[in-house]
Design goal:
about 30% helix, 16 helices, alpha+beta, seven-stranded antiparallel sheet, about 15% strand, single chain
């Protein structure tokens, strides 16, 4: 039978096997013997034979089997032949300092053949090892399976890239601050593996010193980590100082925050001003004085911000340099169409940041679509010109435009077609106007209705709020009661209040065991500066490990919205005299990145912040 290319009948012809053995022996002698003595790592008795741990072509034991554990006789592939066993994946041996041979196929070698009797190979590539290595080339093997065991041992460490050898998880960057959150919080719940009992039951001297430091705007410098918070008097005084806020009006038997949807908290309480007009007038006069005092402090940058909480909306006033704005800003949320129309009538210029942001995004989308339509129209026009149907295409386009104009100009033309145009009364101009402004009415009492007032118009807004009757409820449990003013610093007519703090130790289940966890609950109208100061104190007291759950007053969550004319000024505006902790000032100067959402969780692990909103 004639021998075909690639066919290996050597298992039937012993003469062919003997010829291959002789050829293999001559090839090994020509490759591994070197005139200069290089490339030979075996013993002198093995200088002319295969290197260590290389199986000969014919079945038999491995050379140098004493260095290889479990080296047995591997069955030879009976279908092997010189022609069909050559693999483009050249293999070479890497000998380490221990004398053990390792095979690798990740580096390419070039093979040059000179006649049937002389075979030589050349290895190329740079080894990924810094240790001393020697290279010896293997001409070719009878079967790729001969190197399977060696490849399994060395494939992992050799083929790994520097990125794979590097640590799998890279530590995230350390965040020393969390985003500024301008929403009001009703409750904070801190948890920590270390005890938080130091935060409650202050001594009389510590509480007095904390209140005095707050009024004088003195702040203690605490170490990076407090070893014993229980015995640290400076820490306990600073904590009492961080709980202070100022409020007007102040009625001990009624909680004046929150005011939106708070009728239940006023039900059954004594409200002597409800039916007394003189008392209502007196309350409003004192409230107007307090509001004017707050705005004067804000303008002089002695008060960084304050809140006005009425029964139907909340207003946040911020000084210049706070929140990334170079001028005084005011955010009102939620608003109604009637309130916005009244502000327009008073000459107050304002913007709707969320609506404008949505409009810009739609314009970009429409611009993209319009560009695509123009390209399509150009392609259609080109096709029409090629097919000489340009007039028909233009007629079709004009027909479409005429239909659109009919729908835009005369939406009642269909009545004429039916012949009932005289029997049906058309809507008047007022109804048509209301229908066009229906989208504006649909924004009422929604976060998208937030209004931003900037610059000198904030002073007009103050006068508008003082004289506007809609800021005071005309009926209900809150009738006749002025809005609540909240500020981090003292102002005229204000009353000093402190947040309530309570510490409890609980057991939390972690896997199959229970772990002791200390909790600290703070309730009341928590201002942004108070949250920042408390977090700064817990950072030192709890050694950089604590977490917090934040409960937001929902109507104030949208206060984190970007204003349209926001310009970051950095440290160009001096706010050192505003009465806040330097860490709070640095944080509140930054523009908020939360949008219309608010923070819900803060976690500090190893002095690094993570958060959720």
């Amino acid at each position: 039978m004639s021998q075909q290319a690639g066919y290996s009948p050597s298992f039937k012809r012993p003469a062919e096997i003997m010829r291959m053995r002789r050829k293999r022996a001559r090839s090994d002698a020509g490759v591994f013997s070197s005139p200069s003595g290089q490339g030979s790592t075996g013993s002198p008795g093995q200088s002319g034979s295969s290197p260590a741990c290389v199986r000969p072509f014919s079945p038999g034991p491995l050379f140098n089997t004493q260095n290889r554990s479990g080296g047995g006789i591997k069955r030879r592939n009976p279908f092997a032949n010189i022609e069909n066993t050559y693999s483009p994946k050249k293999k070479f041996l890497i000998h380490n300092d221990d004398g053990n041979a390792e095979a690798a196929d990740s580096y390419k070698m070039k093979k040059s053949t000179e006649g049937d009797e002389d075979v030589s190979t050349q290895c190329q590539g740079v080894l990924p090892f810094s240790a001393r290595v020697t290279e010896e080339c293997v001409p070719f093997c009878e079967d790729d399976s001969l190197f399977e065991e060696e490849e399994e041992d060395v494939k992992g460490p050799l083929l790994k890239s520097p990125q794979a050898i590097a640590p799998a998880s890279i530590s995230p960057p350390i965040c020393t601050e969390y985003p500024a959150d301008w929403s009001l919080k009703t409750r904070l719940l801190f948890t920590s593996p270390l005890s938080l009992s130091w935060a409650e039951h202050p001594k009389a001297q510590e509480e007095a010193l904390g209140l005095s430091q707050h009024c004088r705007a003195h702040f203690s410098t605490l170490p990076h980590s407090v070893q014993d918070p229980r015995s640290c008097s400076e820490l306990r005084c600073a904590f009492r100082q961080s709980l202070v806020y100022w409020q007007h009006p102040s009625l001990p038997w009624i909680s004046l925050f929150p005011r939106i949807n708070a009728e239940r908290s006023f039900t059954g309480k004594s409200t002597p001003w409800a039916q007394d007009t003189a008392l209502q007038h007196s309350l409003m006069s004192e409230w107007a004085v307090s509001l004017s005092s707050l705005y004067s402090l804000l303008k002089a940058r002695l008060c960084p911000y304050f809140y006005l909480c009425s029964y139907q909306f909340t207003v946040l006033f911020r000084a210049a340099g706070v929140g990334g704005s170079s001028s005084i800003t005011a955010l009102i949320s939620p608003t109604t169409r009637g309130l916005r129309e009244a502000m327009k009538a008073e000459g107050i210029e304002f913007s709707l940041p969320l609506i404008e942001e949505r409009r810009k995004s739609r314009e970009q989308q429409n611009l993209t679509v319009h560009q695509g339509e123009e390209e399509e129209q150009e392609e259609k026009a080109q096709e029409c010109s090629e097919l000489k149907e340009g007039e028909a295409c233009r007629a079709g386009d004009e027909g479409e435009n005429d239909g659109y104009n009919d729908d835009e100009d005369g939406s009642f033309s269909w009545l004429k077609e039916m012949g009932v145009q005289d029997k049906i009364k058309k809507p008047d101009s007022i109804t048509i106007q209301l229908r066009k402004e229906g989208h504006a009415v649909s924004l009422d009492h929604k976060p998208e209705s937030v209004v931003c007032v900037e610059g000198s118009h904030t002073f007009t807004l103050i006068n508008f709020l003082i004289n506007c009757r809609s800021v005071v409820a005309a009926a209900g449990s809150q009738a006749g009661l002025p809005p609540t003013l909240l500020a981090p610093v003292a102002f005229r007519g204000a009353t000093m209040h402190t947040l309530k703090a309570r510490s409890v130790n609980v057991k939390s289940r972690v896997g199959s065991t229970f772990q002791n966890i200390s909790t600290l609950e703070i309730t009341g109208p928590v201002l942004p500066s108070s949250l920042c100061t408390v977090a700064t104190l817990l950072r030192s007291a709890q050694k950089g490990n604590f977490s917090a759950a934040l409960y937001t007053h929902i109507p104030s969550a949208v206060m984190n919205t970007h204003t349209t004319k926001q310009q970051y000024t950095g440290g160009s505006v001096d706010l050192s005299g505003c009465g806040l902790h330097p860490a709070s000032i640095q944080q509140l100067q930054q523009p908020s990145s939360l949008g219309k959402t608010a923070l819900t969780h803060i976690n500090m692990n190893n002095y690094s912040y993570t958060w959720k909103n």
